[in-house]
Design brief:
Layout (H helix, E strand, L loop, with lengths): L5 E4 L2 E4 L1 E2 L5 H8 L1 H7 L5 E3 L15 E7 L5 E5 L3 E4 L6 E4 L1 H7 E5 L5
Antiparallel strand pairs: 1-2, 1-9, 3-7, 4-5, 5-6, 7-8
Amino acid sequence: MTGLPRYRKRPTETLAVQLRWSTWGEVCQFLGAEALHDANPEGAWDINADEASDTCGETGPTYLALNVRTVHGELAVVRHGDWILPEAASGRFYPVKPDVFDRTYELVSEEPTS
């Protein structure tokens, strides 16, 4: 992936993107059209602020939610403010709540990867 910051899960490095309105383009690029459509045939949906994991300082009135397919083939809901990380299996992802992400990962580089 290009254009995404890199984060390290001590001691492993990974790519990650936070679901929010301002990163929607990066989320779509990160998940890829096939994975995004496979888990969300009707598309992403709007949720209220009280359903979001974090509003990320963005003002509503609505926030984002979508599904990602996990390594076990199950669907997991990603709510506005959650981080999306890739599984080892291509095209599979998992959500991480913002507080868990902050405790577990540290920024390695904001330089785009090739």
